């Protein structure tokens, strides 16, 4: 492990160094209190100290709107969409978002592997940064600490006067070669405590979810839920999509596009004949939460909620997924849960 | 049980690109349903199992899943029986022979015919559920040595909505087929059985030790069909069910078709009943 000291004044040098070698995507300020990953044009505009971005880096690998194919209506031919390999450096990514990418990698590699995602994802480099948990983060409860470097090629940890830059992979070393920095020989910077938690170890969640199907919390959460689907759209591990055709204004061609979709929306499970398999909001909320904590975990062994807190921060009704889970935990723990 | 690592895109197949097939024949079945005969380019075989489906698309209109109605034993072309319910199906209803359509698939897990071999085959089909079940029915009829008796229970809302009436007549006359049909409400000249499909089941002559049964119909039908079969002593392990859910990709990616943790486009649409018994969202 190689650690360097990056003085606060030299952060812009790091960004410049990266920009000379790769396209750089990093957090930028969007409005007074929100942040977004965007292509960096000005090193001074990069913000490394931020609570969370509205969307995760998912949007670069699974864009909100993407052309699957372009068709020609005059002769019924088509051409496949051309996803561009990103090959970009993603600077200032939080550990939970890298963990989310890891889960998306699984989804698009396992079973029928999907070229579109894999092409976009190819060659991406991650330079993580630690974060100070706010009232919404709870990633520590799902095994993802703020200084977790898994999946990163390099990692920045904040100090009072700058950052510790840790090089983690050969790709990271190659990319940062030539950036002259002094070694860092100080202690590990202190970890920041979480303010939000799930009150049970991750290993017990599976059993608790198994018992939660008929729990009143689904109806309780639905009293104020408006079914807007925002919680799905901002989630870094949600990957469900819709596909629709769009005809160009000339009416001679068009494109088949996929767009993000969400299981909280009523039409998501509607079929011909008008049957909606998850008609009520309680069923939809249950599906969203069990997908994160049970269905996908049962097959992959990890929770699919990475504790970023986005769904809670963005929900117009203030519905908190951590509170939902804790409600289940509280009731399940009153009746003994067998240790695993 | 672990996360699969990122793979190289070169190892991934194109999942969403259709093959351009051609409609060879269009035959109106009823007011709402039409039967399409479709040929793949170069006379390629679809290579499906009874119970599987394809994604059909018309550029500029959209794409949707439809069961393959013909048996894989009938080679060269395949058939789709499609009900007019919305955008794509409306435009399809106006299509004539020669029209190019996009086809992806076949998708999903069809009927595991090996597990039906040597047994009496009971098909319970409600309404448009006959479209996919017809694939299995004709498969059994084309390989008479492989199966025992064929018992068909078909229920329709009215006699005017009966599908494949010419074939129904053939099945009725076939001495190796026990064909039963019922309508919820018959027109004045209907002389057959009246009542919901489950009313056909008590009267069946079943060999419970040598039976395999497949059910397909509208969502409300499954629970009642299951109750009726169970009360006749049909074993759970002898029951298969073909389920329908909204589907956008057919390849296990879009998430629409999920029943609890199961993806219908991958694990279904035809499920062995013991597999879905514990899935609260299944029936
Ligand atoms: C495995 C499977 C097999 C099917 N087999 C047949 C068949 O053999 N014959 C047949 O007529 N129909 C079949 N269907 C239903 C068929 O997919 C729908 O009728 C079709 O999607 C409607 O498309 P549309 O554009 O005409 O309707 P739209 O205008 O999109 O909507 C009309 C209605 O269809 C529903 N719908 C829309 N998209 C889908 C979708 N992707 N999946 C399911 N429902 C949808 C809508 O919710 C709405 O209620 C099958 C569905 C599945 C999942
Ligand atoms: S964001 Fe909140 S209100 Fe909107 S669907 Fe999700 S839980 Fe319901
Ligand atoms: S469910 Fe909510 S907290 Fe969990 S990963 Fe998704 S957006 Fe973040
Ligand atoms: S239809 Fe897309 S996942 Fe099953």
Task: Describe the protein.
The complex is a heterodimer of chains A (340) and B (283). With 340 residues, chain A is of the alpha/beta class. Chain A has helices spanning 11-21, 58-61, 95-109, 115-121, 170-176, 202-210, 217-222, 230-234, 281-300, 310-314, 321-334; strands at 2-7, 24-30, 34-39, 65-72, 77-80, 89-93, 125-129, 154-158, 162-167, 241-247, 253-260. In chain A, the strands form two sheets. In chain A, strands 1-9-8-7-6-2-3 form a seven-stranded mixed β-sheet. In chain A, strands 5-4-11-10 form a four-stranded antiparallel β-sheet, with no helix packed on it. In chain A, helix 6 crosses helix 9. The two termini of chain B are 27 Å apart. With 283 residues, chain B is of the alpha/beta class. The longest helix of chain B is centred in the middle third of the chain and has 13 residues, at 130-142. Chain B has two domains: 3-107, Beta Barrel (Elongation Factor Tu (Ef-tu), domain 3); 113-276, Rossmann fold (3-Layer(aba) Sandwich). A seven-stranded mixed β-sheet of chain B has the order 10-9-8-7-11-12-15, sandwiched between helices. Chain B has a six-stranded antiparallel β-sheet with strand order 4-3-6-1-2-5, covered by helices on one side. The interface between A and B is large, with 62 and 50 residues. The structure holds flavin-adenine dinucleotide (FAD), iron/sulfur cluster (2 copies) and FE2/S2 (inorganic) cluster. Flavin-adenine dinucleotide (FAD) sits between chains B (53, 62, 64-67, 81-83, 85-89, 128, 131-132, 244-248, 269) and A (270-272, 274). FE2/S2 (inorganic) cluster binds next to loops of chain B.
